[in-house]
User: Fold CSC1-like protein RXW8 from Trapa natans.
Amino acid sequence: MNWSVYFGRRLSQVSPRRSHSVCFQRFVPSPSWILKAWETPEAEILAVGGLDAVVFLRIILFSLRIFSVAAFMGIFLVLPVNYHGQEMHQDRIQSESLEVFTIGNVKLGSKWLWAHCLALYIISFTACLLLYFEYNSIANMRLAHIRTSLPNPRHFSVLVRAIPWSPEESYSDSLKKVFKKYHGANYLGHQMVYHRGTVQKLLTETRKLCKMISSDKVRDRLNILQCTLCSSTSDSFRVLSDEPESMNGKSPSREREISSNAKETPAAFVFFKTRYAADIAANVILSTNPMSWVTNYAPEPHDVYWSNLSIPFGQLWLRKIITLLAAIVFMFLFLIPVTFVQGLTQLDQLQYSLPFLRGILKEKYMNQLVTGYLPSVILLLFLYIVPPTMMFFAVIEGSISRSGRKRSACHKILYFTIWNVFFVNILSGSVLRQLDALSTPKEIPTQLARAVPAQATFFMTYVLTSGCASLSSELMQPMVLIWNWFKRVILRQKDDMVPYSFPYHTEVPRVLLLGFIGFIFSVLAPLIVLLLLVYFFLAYLVYRNQILNVYITKYESGGLLWPTVHKTLVFSLVFMQITALCVFGLKNSKSAVSFTIPLVVCTMLFNEYCRQRFYPIFKNTSAQILIEMDQEDEQSERMEQIHQDLQKAYNQITLKSQDLHKPAQLSRPTPTRSDEGRIGPERDQGS
Assistant:
């Protein structure tokens, strides 16, 4: 059965007992998912997938809106000018060449370049207007998400690293002494982080201890012992204090013995009585040495990447340099397949380098296959190795959370794909024989203006190939399907696959890359925008379906990806304007050049305004919101229960796979008026 492949999220919320009767309707393709994905309101998407899912879909919606405007301007204004640019009569559309639809077909000094300049202004102003409204809307949604979310352990917790070693006392005692001294009024307790090997050993000892106890009591107390293993590692909390003093006279003393034998790392989670106190502690430098007693916002409990917490803080800067150098080396190694791919698009050069292919390439269909479709397929196949490589670099870098690891990988993949898919293809394609000219900075604008329109055909093929491959793969889930079949048929295991979280680190860079390509060619070669409209429309339906049915929400960052998205889209706008500026200069249109320069300046000023106006909302949490939430919890008498739940919030090892699907919020004893209208259900904060 493939229920877990295509309905993983839904099945994770229902009873595991399912009927396995054969039903023919399950094998009949049904288009009903399209209607369901289209009609689902955004509020339901927010409740199911969280704010991150809404942000991702907003990227696609923004692309649909802006490229609808670009398509209208391109078809009715730019495309006719390009097609009749050489002032010659066209009897029919030339099927063998698409260059007549690009700005390269416009003659030098043409007065009709004002049409391209006007389209550039309309697209740029529309994009800035849409970006402003999106940034404002998502910022307000983030504030509402924080204000109305259930009590979360991370709001009361701070991660402390680089605790100085002392031969006289343990890390736990040192931390307790320091925080009682400087945060005595608000300090609640702490949870030490242990080496991973030590935790595994403690788990083994605890399981042996359980076997020594009668089976009836094991069933009653097993969860208590497991919770104690991870939660009572600090003297500040004693989870078994409310339980009977012993279980056959052995449990409490044995637990303390295990805790005392554990090997501490210079890292810990420190808990505070209020959210505001935790926020202050996370932003204040505790010591005169910035490399010791380093405080950061704590990740959500199931989002913690425990193995990286034991990395010495002094190594992090070196690890970042090493991963940066490794990424640069990988980027240069990737030039080999990219250059090979672009060599296939150059027919004359290919026949010159490989004479035995001349006879084969004379065939029309073989020529179109080798120089048109094949390069995009080869490049797409090579790009599949990029996400796991960048994810590995993000782990080496030392991310303290799984969501932070994915965001780091997302940034690396985004920069990598924009450079290798666009810039390297541009330089190694039409300028393959003129690389020496790039050594002179003055020649770069000229070469860029010549290269970009010349590569329009390749990028149209890439958009078509990449879009079809990515959406069909996302919808069919071939790798997960094969793995599920292998487990059931070969390994004879039950269909108990754990649903995956949404792969933001791969899908966000893909969508932004196609948007970047669309901006660049929206004025230079408008035909590519039509393909992008089809892709984004299908992507909107496919991704909504996947969020509703397939993926689960393992963590919630509150839309932290949007600032990166905004900066990338603004960079796409600026580079579109600069490229058009270079092309206008190459076409000897001084008026178009003079009108484009202010547009670049205004776009940069718009980006700076948005950075000053909205970015602080994503960087820090307002003190007003935190204090109001604390006051609300104190008035409703929930604070005491929240403090008790903090004792068992951060478990260093997941003892059961089911824990991955448990919500990470703290318990809420009694509902209050402010609980009404909270955004979505309790989020699943699994790792």
Summary: The beta strands are 157-161, 187-194, 264-272, 294-297.
